[in-house]
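## tool: complex_structure
## caller: assistant
## args:
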Amino acid sequence: MTESASQERLLLEAKGITKRFPGVLALDGVSLSIRPGEVHALMGENGAGKSTLMKIIGGIYQPDGGELLLNGKPYTPKGPADAQSQGVSLIHQELNLVPDLTVAQNIFLGREPMGAGLLSEDKAVKQATELLHRIGVTFDARTLVRDLPVASQQMVEIAKAISFDSQLLVMDEPTAALTDREVEALFKLIHDFVSPTTAVIYISHRMEELMQISDRITVFRDGRFVKELKTEDTSRDEIVRLMVGRKITAYDRPENVRDPDATPTLEVRHITNAMVKDASFSVYPGEILGFGGLAGAGRTELARAIIGADPKTSGEILVDGKPVTIRRPSDAVDAGIAYLSEDRKQFGLVLDETINDNVAIASLKDFTSKIGLIRDRDIAKTAKKYIGALSIKTPSATQQVKNLSGGNQQKVVIAKWLARNSKVLIFDEPTRGIDVGAKQEIYTLLDQLVQEGHCVVVISSELEELIRVSDRILVMCNGSITGELSHKEATQERIMELATTFRK
Amino acid sequence: MSTVQAVSAPAKKPALPRRIPSSSLQQLLIFGTWIVLLIGFSIADPHFMRMGNIVALLLASAVTGIQALGVTFTIATGGIDITPGLGMAMTGVITAMCMVTFHLPIWLAVIIGILSGAILGWVNGLLIAGFKMQPMIATLAMMLVAQGAALVLSGSKPVYTTDEVGFDQIARGTQLFGIPNAVWIFLGLAVISWIILNKTRLGRYALAMGSNEEATRMSGVNVRRWKWAIYVLAGSYTGLSGVVMTSRLSAAQPATGSGYEMYAIAAAVIGGASLAGGRASIVGTVIGALIITTINNGLQILSVPDPWQKIFLGIVVVAAVLVDLYRQHNQKKVK
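## result:
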């Protein structure tokens, strides 16, 4: 196959692209061949390296190794503007619009039509209106982007990309915010766009869409190229298998036994807000409940809604069978619910302060004497206890937290919430940024917490990890809980399937 | 063609001028506030509406107005510039010394005065756009530098320009309808500023980077260069304000100017500029400057002591910002 590819004329060819970020090898010598006239889907789990490669193609990142060829000539974009001028446009996963400018002003930002030395609004509006007609949308080009719904903003991004006379259009999850009708319009647009000299690279997790729109599919896994397939010759199952691929390390975890009659420690009923649709679940004492799904499925958003960090339009929360009112994060903490963010450095820790300070910060009230002075000796005692119990590796309790490793920092966060007597600990990506050896330790610690009667919720995008730690797994997709799997039922394939089940 | 009806946001009426809702409504609101102030002060004291006082009021609004126009641009980018007040002292001293000490012709002194402000702005730009300093800290530092420079250059003494025939006419000449030239300079600069903000790339990029700097950079705009240019522009306004102030007083006062920057910022914010960046209005800033001077002037006429005037102005600024926050809050809800 590589042989035939090398004989064909390729629009874009990536050869052995390597990209390293601090501590992570994001791309490990990947290849990609885009032929003119095709829609090429790029598939892989979160973290497979798709978006990184797209950012390299779009000029946002520079590769550490490898070579890009555009129409057979070396292609080394120095920035997004340079890529665009060479006919490569990237439509980002995140919207990249200026909210206080109009649609027309956004489309021509950086290359404004001029008249008599001044900006010509009339020209911009006229050209933008033509573009919007071409992609089949009807809103006014003079609308402020701020006033448009997200889906329409996405269409503005697309109009902007098209306006560059691109030969290669890269779309990273363009349909995430679109309704079915808008997706249809987008697909028609893609068909119209593709000509014998142009091509589209399309990234999406929605399998049905890919089968419908793409001519070829390339699968990445863990920063490596796995396989290139013709869409007509493959199946959904085969793609999922290639995406997950790696051998599952067999691990027999002791199944935590839960009392069938027990009252759930945390019960959540019908939580709904902008990002979460009618989510209900219960966590029982002595079990670890896992949440699986792709990035943006609504897991973090559900957790934030539960702890009152984001507003919820409806829903009830019960702790130990009693309803609690949670309007802001402090209410959740008072109710015994702790949320351990994936971004420990921003939300979990005060990096410049000591272990003592960090352990005490959530429960300073308990460490304050009657006349309002902080009892440092009690804090030191408590911190010492947790350093021992959680085996935090540090020369002393007065060590600044920023000098600890990722795994030990995570343990300090856990100590902080244990000191606050939290009953429910919700971990968001508990091992992100933690190296492999320390991961095992965190897993053991999770089991230990549950055995001591705490109840643990784990949100994880690493399937292996999710299966490893959870007694039960709930999978979310597009804001809804799409299924529940017991520890025995859970396989990476089943989780991926539920994670790509888009409900209407 | 309209396959995607659901996408169309507001009803399509291309014939009508749009954006009546938020920005124009606010301009109307602050214009109304100004009128109410004028009526209120005239009722409280009939002296207020005398021609002589109105001319004095307009003359006083010119310096604050010119500085407020400059500040409007930096606020649009999401930054801030607090050099105008003491920068005015420095550029005033430089302008006066060009004539008095170096005997340069008036026109050249004026140009050098404006240029010295532009250089001050260039350094602000270097620190903020070049070295990525916090605008507040960078301009705070430059404010002190400007104050020191004004005192050092002048030997801490006022530089009188009374012997420079015609120089006082720049601010005080009343060739047109009996209104001082300083007011015409202010209004002329407002027109130029409106064109720059709304009709040139400089203004467009200022608003764009204030609204979403990353997206602006991604669009291929050299954010660093344009932001730098904004601070140079704002600095040259400071330079002009120094020229006008010196002409108005027939002297450069090296020890004054402190606090003017706050009036300028307040005028821009009252006029609807958002300190978060991305939103600014020249018409609003002009009315904002008039409101500030009207309050100062009116309270003086009513013999309200100076400290109380300051308290009152502070309350006005807080009210303006609250209106702005309320509006932003509603916008978020719409989203």
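## assistant note: Residues 113 and 119 of chain A are 6 Å apart (CA to CA). Chain A touches chain B at residues 60, 79-82, 84, 92, 95-101, 105, 109-112, 118-119, 133, 136-140, 142-144, 146-149, 151-152, 155, 179, 181-182, 184-185, 188 (CB under 8 Å). Handing back to user.
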